[in-house]
Amino acid sequence: MLARSITSLGRRAVLAAGLLALTAGASLTIAADAQPQAGEMAPAISLPDQTGKTVNLADYKGKWVVVYFYPKDQTPGCTTQACEFRDNIFEFRNAGAQILGISVDDVASHKAFAEMHGLPFPLLADSTKATATRYGVLTKMGDNAIASRQTFLVDPAGKIVKHYNVGRDDLVGHSKLVLSDIATFKAKN
Questions:
Q1: Which one, 81, 145, 153, 166, has least CB within 10 Å?
Q2: Residue 83 bears catalytic tag
Q3: Is the dihedral of CA 21, 25, 30, 34 positive or negative?
């Protein structure tokens, strides 16, 4: 009986801490699949892009793929990150790499975001949140579930070679870091 009461109190404390974090504007990770690790095959992706065309990760077999998850179209941090990838697009193309941006926003939102900022790569709409869940990046922010800002570098064989947990302070320079890592991994092979 005592152990049961302690367990019940423990659950209440966890719930109270979670509610306190949410009311303070913090994010809370939602139970999701474990994040894929370096050396594992990247989970399948099949989502519509900003034009409504279905894009599959498998379509890029033989190329390096940068799969970056971001919280929301048209927000300052997400715009900074997307525009950095845009500004380095020719370097990514020269490296044989494809960029895929993913958020839980819908196709129309992605279309407006891509057009407003001239984004020359697919923005994939994960409106069911299934892909963000498979990659273990789904996060609760207030009343909404969003993708946390994380990047997975996938090699030409479809394996994840690096995972980046991108903080707000890491936005500027993130795309250059990914380019540098691609060059390093290519030199090792």
A1: 145
A2: no
A3: negative
Under 8 Å between Cβ of 165 and 68: no
What pTM was computed for the model? 0.81
Rg of the chain (C-alpha set): 18
161 three-class SS:
strand
Catalytic pick among 45, 57, 66, 78: 78
| 32 Cα distance to chain centroid | 14
Residue 176, C-beta contacts closer than 8 angstroms, at least 6 positions apart: 84, 88
Q: Token pair of 169, please?
A: 């302070």
Sign of CA dihedral 111, 53, 125, 177: negative
Helix (H, G, I), strand (E, B) or coil at 47: strand
Query: Which burial class, exposed, middle or buried, applies to 32 when counting CB atoms under 10 A from its CB (0-12, 13-18, 19+)?
Result: middle
Give the residue ranges of DSSP H helices in the chain: 2-23, 76-87, 89-94, 107-117, 130-134, 174-188
Along the 189 residues of the chain, how does pLDDT read in single tens digits? 434 333 334 433 333 334 333 333 444 444 446 888 898 999 999 999 999 999 999 999 999 999 999 999 888 778 888 999 999 999 999 999 999 999 999 999 999 999 999 999 999 999 999 999 999 999 887 778 999 899 999 999 999 999 998 777 777 888 999 999 999 999 987
